Amino acid sequence: MIALEKYAELLDHAPNCLALLAAWQRWRGGALLPSVDQVRPEELGKALNGLTIMDVHSPDRVIYRLVGNTHVQVFGEDLTGQDVGSVMVKEERNRRLKHLWDFVTVPCGAAAKMVYVRQSGGKTKTQLLIMPVLPRNSGVPKRLYLSMDVLDGLTSQPDPIVGPVKLLEGLTYVDIGNGTPQ
């Protein structure tokens, strides 16, 4: 776990994540979380390309609502409308979907470094930041805003990822002022 105030210090190599973190803090003002009505995506500028939005319906149902260009480039396809669990390794799926549920119910943020293995054997390394956002009304899915930065290994040549994605570099909870899951 890392405190929100300290996390920004670790993002100098990840401008999209840093932009989301700064904007998210402005959007929430003095509240624990911003609501979708407070979100101003245009404040992200060029970092908007790194933004992906997920609708969290339940602990086992999370849908890609909007997938940013950076995510599309890394995955080689637009996952908008698809189940997030469909791109996860089966053995990790329940645990990782539970994490996503925790982010909106505790609530808290998270950071991770992911490595995507390519058919050529190459690897694309990324930094992710995930932050929760309240829905406009109760009874509708909560949202997660995910920012992605490519750190290394993305080429302009088509080179699809191999199979479902494994969380190779671990996950760090970001305490936004409400603690983190146990």
Widest sheet: strand ordering: 1-7-4-5-6-2-3
Radius of gyration: 15 Å
Task: Give me the number of helical elements.
Answer: 4
Q: Main sheet, how many strands, which sense, barrel?
A: 7 strands, mixed
* Overall pLDDT score: 89
Order of helices and strands: EHHEEHHEEEE
Summarize the amount of helix as a percent range.
10-25%
Provide the β-strand percentage band.
25-35%
User: Which ranges are low-confidence, i.e. pLDDT below 50, for 5 or more consecutive residues?
Assistant: none
**What is the strand tally?**
7
Q: CA-to-CA gap between the ends? A: 10 Å
The 3D shape can be described as globular
> Which secondary-structure class do the elements indicate?
alpha+beta
Provide a descriptive summary of the structure in words.
- The protein is of the alpha+beta class.
- It has four helices and seven strands, in the order βααββααββββ.
- The chain has helices spanning 4-7, 15-28, 69-75, 90-105, and strands at residues 2-3, 51-58, 61-66, 109-117, 123-133, 142-152, 171-175.
- It has a seven-stranded mixed sheet with strand order 1-7-4-5-6-2-3.
- The longest helix has 16 residues, at 90-105.
- The chain is globular.
- The model has no long low-confidence stretch (mean pLDDT 89).
